[in-house]
Write a structure and sequence with these properties.
Elements lengths: L15 H13 L7 H17 L7 H23 L1 H4 L3 H17 L6 H31 L1
Helix pairs in contact: 2-3, 2-6, 3-5, 5-6
């Protein structure tokens, strides 16, 4: 029977320095991990906001627009969580998406009321803010490496 109770200290492993370097590389880009959940929640709210604010019947084109944009922002957030080093370059795209959300009531919608305008402006502003925060943290993490 094999001796399964024998365990040696990992510091004597021949590849310990390589394992430490790899561990540092993998976790090094996760300074921006705090942004994943807020971005996902904003995307989720953006997708359901036409039904929360009750303008889905009055502005069907804008309701569809917000649903699609919310799903796209949610997909970005999932991408940020799964492959952060590859996806955080898209933080600037999130800023553009936020700016588009701000002007969408006038471009996509037809004579939007104040509730619709405020909803999209607040969502767009938060998306721009989170995109700028993700981009700045990503640039800071890239400078450190």
């Amino acid at each position: 029977m094999a001796d399964v109770h024998h365990r040696s200290d990992l510091s004597s492993h021949p590849d310990v320095s390589e394992m430490r370097d790899r561990y540092a590389r993998v976790l090094g880009g996760r300074d921006v991990a705090l942004m994943d959940a807020p971005v996902f929640l904003i995307g989720l709210y953006c997708a359901i906001s036409p039904w929360v604010v009750h303008y889905s019947a009055l502005q069907p084109a804008l309701a569809t627009h917000n649903l699609i944009m919310g799903i796209a922002i949610g997909v970005l957030a999932v991408g940020f969580a799964v492959t952060p080093t590859r996806m955080y370059g898209l933080s600037w795209a999130m800023c553009v998406m936020g700016a588009w959300m701000i002007i969408a009531p006038w471009v996509v919608g037809s004579s939007p009321d104040l509730g619709v305008i405020l909803n999209n402006v607040i969502i767009g502003g938060l998306i721009v803010l989170l995109g700028l925060m993700c981009a700045s943290l990503s640039m800071k993490a890239n400078r450190a490496t």
